Amino acid sequence: MKINLDEINxxxxxxxxxxxxQWAKDQFENGLVMTSGFGAESAVMIHLVTRIMPTVPxxxxxxxxxxxxxxxxxxxxxxxxxxxxxxxxxxxxPEDLGNQVExxxxxxxxxxxxxxxxxxxxxxxxxxxxxxxxxxxxRANSKIVQRDSNGLYRIHPILTLSQREVEMYMTLYDLPYHxxxxxxxxxxxxxxxxxxxxxxxxxxxxxxGECGLNVPNYSI
Length: 220
Hints:
Layout: H1 5-12, H2 17-28, E1 32-35, H3 42-50, E2 57-62, H4 68-81, E3 84-89, H5 104-121, E4 126-128, H6 137-140, E5 145-147, E6 153-155, H7 163-172
Parallel strand pairs: 1-2, 1-4, 2-3, 4-6
Antiparallel strand pairs: 5-6
């Protein structure tokens, strides 16, 4: 299967996110999966996608350093939506990394290797994620549909939504925010790089503002 990216991005750009999800379902069928970090507003993508694909595999990469509230939130959403949640983690004990929690080895061992394994075991040909163009400079350059060097298609149904539109969607469907939002956390990842702050301001991720799994054109 090969998709003309320029043509399909032009075709999908004016569509509602739910129509993009429907296109992805029709195009990739059983090869379509979704990723979620169960962050501040993750319920938007989860609600949007599972209304169309109730049993879509949802991959959560457990770095062993997620904030405790995230584990609770993920379980709450799993029960509420009946999610087909697939949790992947590194087989290497976290203590073996010592204090090396921000270098390339950490991202490779605790994030990239489990994600690569998840995509392989689930026979994924396309993966949906909830990145938005207003979050980071890198994401501003993303497209609704991209393809990496391994041939994996990456689909971003809510890429063009504004923060206001996300909040309106949350209100319309009475969706829950991550519990740490009440404490001022808006970008929620590992415990050592998550702090209070709007948008990505609360994440200590270097100049790119990326955690290592959502860099445009990154090949997992």
